[in-house]
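lol ok so funny story. i was supposed to be doing the assay writeup but got distracted and ended up predicting the structure for this chain instead. priorities right. anyway since i did it might as well share w the group, maybe its usefull for someone
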Amino acid sequence: MVAYRATPADATSGVRVGDVEYRGFPAAGAGVTGASPETQVAFFALLHDQDLRAPIAAFVRDDAGNEAKATFVDNVFPKPFKKSRIELEDKFIDRVVPEIIEHSPELKMTAPAQGSPEMIAAFLKVNSELRTINADQIAAFAAKTSPNKLWDGPFVQLGNSQVEASFADHRTYFYKGKEVDQQTHLGFDLAVTSRVPVVAANAGTVMNASWLGIYGNCVILDHGMGVQSLYGHLSSFDVKVGDTVTRGQTIGRSGMTGLAGGDHLHFTMLVGGRMVNPVEWWDAHWIADRVQRKLGEAR
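and the output, tada:
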């Protein structure tokens, strides 16, 4: 997060990381008392697949396209990501593919017969094409974010959960001994027990509470200023779109809907519609130093 001053106040401003832009919001919406209209706040990210040397700069741009920018990040650190091998079995494919296709008219296809040779091809279309469609659908929610910071303090990880998969795991899929696909898993898979209550990681507003492709029954919460959180593979919902929730409030139950091999929660954070590593958001020290301290100095 960065706080900055941009003039004129009604110009477009934010942070650009490589070719990705993150919108800035008036600092008053983050609780910065007495902030001038020119004082802005922007959350941004260096994405898992971006070069460590990607230029990062605050910018302001007027309607005529004139732009000014200022760099402010002088060091980044590499983060190792895991690699995993996924062995696909017909039992799993036959269970998940028909239901996903039934809920995904955007694929414009019907499910093959269970046990048929066409089923693996349908799985690969779901795992690749639908995954891309879903990423675009999720990114679109960023345009509806509140201009106000709705959350406070660190985000909550699913209690007593075991991490079954981490953020940006590179997965190689094998079927009958042959490599058939590669994808990147952009979230944490957190497991406790079957149908465990899933709580809101922080205060916000419900943007989605419905089936969303490979994520099955999925809740997306808006926490304001481009920050959102996603909860996938739920078995049921306890909230609806438009509801206001508090940190720790039950929003649904874990499950195995969508592209899930077992009962768990798929959780990820979103910044500007882009999936980012939740680890820092769970860290009270990181929140205090990287967000609250900067907002205090902006006052």
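The longest strand covers residues 178-185. The longest helix spans residues 118-140.
back to the writeup now i swear
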